[in-house]
Request: fold
Amino acid sequence: MNARTSRLVATAGLLLLSGAGVLATAGQSSAATRDGSTNSGEFGAYYLQNQASYVFDFASYDANFANDSFPKASSINPDDNTESYWNRNSTYVDVYTESGRGGVHGWIPDGLSGNFSSNYKNNVTSAYER
Ligand SMILES: [Ca+2]
Ligand SMILES: [Ca+2]
Ligand SMILES: [Ca+2]
Reply:
């Protein structure tokens, strides 16, 4: 390897390192759960269809939507009150029509957004990341 090639390789290595640093910072800053925005790593349940209007966003799970409100609409309860979803976790999310995994059980693959089907529309009360 001549001196010129050696310098080019060294420069490329530095670029890769700085790129990884930027990604790590973005991941840490996107973790604001229950802030009314569905960030990477969160599940969002939306007040209206097609991911419109207010969103109840959380990481990991929520065993009972009844003791919550939409972060950007503090007077509106998300229990039995959401029509669409966006799963930004890297795993499935299980949803249920009653608290604590009760009622009808459905599941949403990682990365998927959509409208709740009739069993779940305005009926979801708990949800869990797998
Ligand atoms: Ca959020
Ligand atoms: Ca809750
Ligand atoms: Ca329910």
Q: What stands out?
A: The radius of gyration is 20 Å. The beta strands are 43-48, 52-58, 61-62, 84-87, 93-98, 102-108, 113-115, 126-129.
